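lol so apparently i was supposed to do this last week
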Amino acid sequence: MRFANRSLDPAVRKMLGEANKDGIETVWDRFELQQPQCGFGLLGICCRNCIQGPCRIDPFGNGPQKGVCGAGADLIVARNLLRSVVGGTAAHADHAYEAAEALYLAATGKAPYEIKDEAKLKSVAAKLGIETAGKDKNELAREVAETAFADFANHGTSPMKWLTATAPQERVETWGKLGVLPRNPDREIRTAMHQTGMGVDSDPVNLILSAVKLGLVDGYGGLHLATDIQDILFGTPAPVVSEANLGVLKADHVNIVIHGHVPLLSEKIVEWAKKLADEARAAGASGIQLSGICCTGNEVLMRQGVPVANNFLAQELAITTGVVDAMVVDVQCIMPSLADISACYHTKLISTMPIAKLPGAQHIPFETDKVDETARQIVRTAIEAFKNRDPQKVNVPDEKSRVIAGFSVEAIVGALSKIDSEAPLKPLVDNIANGNVLGACAVVGCNNAKVIQDSFHVTMVKELLKNNVLVVATGCAAHALGKAGFLTPEAAEKYAGDTLKAVLTAVGNAAGLNAPLPPVLHMGSCVDNSRIGDLVSALAGYLKVAVKDLPIAASAPEYQHEKAIAIGTWAVSLGVFTHLGVVPPVLGSKQVATILTSEPVESLLGGKFYVETDPVKAAEGIIAHIKDKRAKLGI
Ligand code: BF8
Ligand code: SF4
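anyway here it is w/ iron/sulfur cluster bound
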């Protein structure tokens, strides 16, 4: 089939054929034009940190081995790595801060959000040591928001409260001994930028330790803070049935595609799309169809059941269906090319955030206190645009798959408690101990133009399931697996090994589904990797072992973003064996590559990176690791 070298997704291949005919350039065309990509960059041995450069180290040893200042390959690679982790961490910490600010404004009556999940509010407050008795939800929410602000304004030496309140005690002690406990997200980000500047730190090992520290900022000051606060504001997800792939777009509806990461505006768009359905009908549409791309898509899928249009690599192709009346973007993973593509259609591309403007887009600013007006204006703009559709350009592929999403830790524990209400984790742990479930793997992260879209996710997950490894997923990986049909009870029948299937069936029946649980549990957006961290921390706590001793792994098979590097660094720091399916730009330094993937980092942190670019071999490596951990536990 045409474009088999670009995507596994049949809808994407079809749309690529159409785009090609119409002369529309996509991410894959630009990727081809970039070949061959710079070898120095791929190895991580190019430095632009001062204006005496750029300096490049000759990887073959014949040419220069030092930059102008004397920096060698190990130093340059370590500095570049730390800057990537800083970039990813800054994105997540900024997202989390915005959520905290919205919670504060909601709690003090200055923003029109209702605090939806009082149970989560109380549990977050309790873990932070905030007295909950006798306080109304707004008072408590204000105190929780102020605790988040206090972490960002911590000028003392104590570590971030969100971290010490959330991470397993054993980890806090380990990180304390290594001297990597972060104090204040902003301060650590600032210090790491300083540390990596020209003529500051020359020690690659010290730089890698700082990367660990920034990984912890990412995990607790970014991911965890964001998830906790978004759950408080918008509700903790519970299982929800929806659909995924471009076929969710409806030719007779006003289509609004929500794209980006922060759900503060998109939650309101969901609300206003319902309120303004009559206006859409008055404009000649049958209604308003919302759908999501990237992690904002995951957020509204998990909580509202909004279907998913596609994942990262296919964002441009959504517009080429000719039925997207508005694509609304907030921050992160938004291709600048969307402006060029939407200009070929009637689609209104709407930017909303002050730090994410796109020339050619209409900017409708998101302001927390006026979010209702913003959301209403956006929905009305889409309805107006619907009238300008060109019927000649309408081409919606049929493909879509049913998905079950919404597996927060609370939802998973809820399902398990139907089997054992006293000790909900016991059935899972017992089935791991007796080998019915060999182990678990978190499959997370992006698409990357270097990998056939979704193919690594799908091939590797098939192997894992066949070998009775339970899979949890987030981010664009979850979209990929959803499109390919893995988020359904039928997938348990089709892909899971016999013993895993029996466990999924027993839990599904006990939970009242009358069907197996899906063998891949969709746990949310990329910030919701915090949920996976919580689940493994709870399992370790129940078993009274460290996370590093569990028969589990993580994998980012098709990652592209700096955020994924930051999340991976946190996962390794938590003690998780973390597979990468795309080679990170560190091979120019034997020292750095060795530290990250072998004994030194494993003995200090318990986790390590594992790089394997073949999906079947990657699954084998993950399974071997899980078996090794089982043997060490004596199970
Ligand atoms: O935060 S998985 S491509 S959308 S970075 Fe981006 Fe990667 Fe998708 Fe979500 Ni995560
Ligand atoms: Fe070159 Fe050193 Fe400047 Fe980097 S910091 S660009 S290696 S002189």
